[in-house]
Specification:
The protein is mainly α and about 300 residues long. It is about 70% helix and about 0% strand. The chain has a domain of about 140 residues.
C-alpha cells in the first residue's frame, strides 16, 4: 500500500507542475492585468466594440472576446489599428465625451461621416490612376461621361475628425446630422471654414452669400447626390459586365455552331515555309512548263 502511494505521488506532482506551467504561459500571453475568467460585457462595452469594428474592419466578435477576457479597449484598438492611429482615435473619442456628447450620438455621427468618405472613395476610385485632361469645350459637348473631378476634390479636402466635431456641435442648428454634414460638404465646396459659424453666424452667412455668386452653374454636392452618383456608377458597371459576358457567350456559341455544322467545310489555311519573296521569272517558267510539258522534255 505504501509502495502504491509512493508511485502515485510523483505523478500528482508532475501534473501540478504541468498545470502551473500552462497556467503561467496563458497568463503571460494575455498580460498580467488580464483575468482568465470571462467577464460579462455591458451595453457600453458592446457599443464601443461595434465602433472599433466599424473603424478598423475587424470582426466585432473577436473584439468582444478580447474584452470579455479583460483586454482594455486601448490595447484592443492598438491591436487592430496601430499605435499612433489608435491613440489619435481614442483621444478624439475622449475629447467628444468631455464636450458633453453621449457615446450613442458620437457613434452615430462617426458612422455617417465614415459612410460618406467611403462612398466618395468608391465613386472616385477610377480617377486615382487617370490623368485628368484640360477642359475642351468642343470635345466636352460630345463627351457624355460623368465628370467626377469635383467629388475627388471634395474628398481631398474632407477631414474626418473636423467633420465629426462640427456635426456634433451643429446638428441642432441644422435640424439633424445629415443636414449638418451637407453644410460641411457645401462649406468645403465654397472654400469657407465652417468653424466660423460657431464664432460668428452672421459673418459666416455673409461669406457664404459672396461665395455662392461664384458658384453659379455648379452642382452642390450633398450626401444624397453622392449616393445617387455611386448607385448609377454601380449600375453601369453591372450592365457593362453583363454585356461583356453576353457578348463572350454569343461568340463562343457562334464558334460552336460553325464547328458542328457539316455543310460548312473546315478550311485549313496553309502555313508558308519561307517568308522569302517569290521570283516572278521562276513563277512564269513554271506556268509555261505546266501548259506545255514538251518544254521540259526538250531541255
Amino acid at each position: 500500500m505504501a509502495k502504491e502511494k509512493r508511485s502515485i505521488l510523483p505523478k500528482i506532482l508532475a501534473l501540478i507542475i504541468v498545470f502551473t506551467m500552462v497556467f503561467s504561459a496563458v497568463a503571460m500571453s494575455l498580460g498580467t492585468k488580464h483575468s482568465l475568467t470571462k467577464r460579462k460585457l455591458t451595453e457600453e462595452d458592446i457599443k464601443i466594440a461595434a465602433e472599433i469594428a466599424n473603424m478598423t474592419g475587424a470582426d466585432i466578435e473577436d473584439i468582444k472576446k478580447l474584452r470579455e477576457y479583460g483586454q482594455d479597449f486601448n490595447t484592443i484598438l492598438k491591436t487592430f489599428k496601430g499605435d499612433e492611429q489608435a491613440e489619435s482615435l481614442l483621444y478624439a473619442n475622449k475629447n467628444y465625451l468631455a464636450m458633453g456628447f453621449k457615446q450613442d450620438e458620437i457613434s452615430e455621427v462617426k458612422l455617417l461621416v465614415n459612410r460618406a468618405v467611403y462612398q466618395l472613395e468608391e465613386l472616385t476610385s477610377d480617377l486615382d490612376n487617370t490623368i485628368i485632361p484640360e477642359p475642351n469645350p468642343v470635345v466636352d459637348i460630345f463627351n457624355k461621361e460623368e465628370d467626377l473631378t469635383p467629388f475627388k476634390e471634395l474628398l481631398s479636402e474632407f477631414k474626418i475628425d473636423s467633420a465629426i466635431e462640427l456635426i456634433l456641435k451643429l446638428k441642432q442648428d441644422f435640424n439633424n446630422i445629415e443636414e449638418a454634414l451637407n453644410e460641411y460638404l457645401y462649406s468645403l465646396q465654397l472654400n469657407i471654414d465652417l468653424k466660423l459659424y460657431l464664432k460668428d453666424k452672421e459673418k459666416y452667412q455673409e461669406q457664404k452669400s459672396e461665395k455662392q455668386l461664384l458658384f453659379v452653374g455648379k452642382e452642390r454636392i450633398t450626401l444624397a447626390l453622392i449616393e445617387e452618383k455611386l448607385l448609377i456608377k454601380l449600375q453601369e458597371q453591372n450592365e457593362k459586365q453583363f454585356s461583356n459576358a453576353t457578348e463572350k457567350e454569343n461568340i463562343n456559341s457562334d464558334k460552336q455552331t460553325e464547328n458542328n455544322n457539316p455543310e460548312v467545310p473546315l478550311v485549313t489555311v496553309p502555313t508558308p515555309n519561307s517568308v522569302k519573296p517569290l521570283n516572278p521569272k521562276d513563277e512564269l517558267n513554271k506556268e509555261i512548263s505546266t501548259i506545255n510539258p514538251m518544254n521540259e522534255k526538250g531541255r
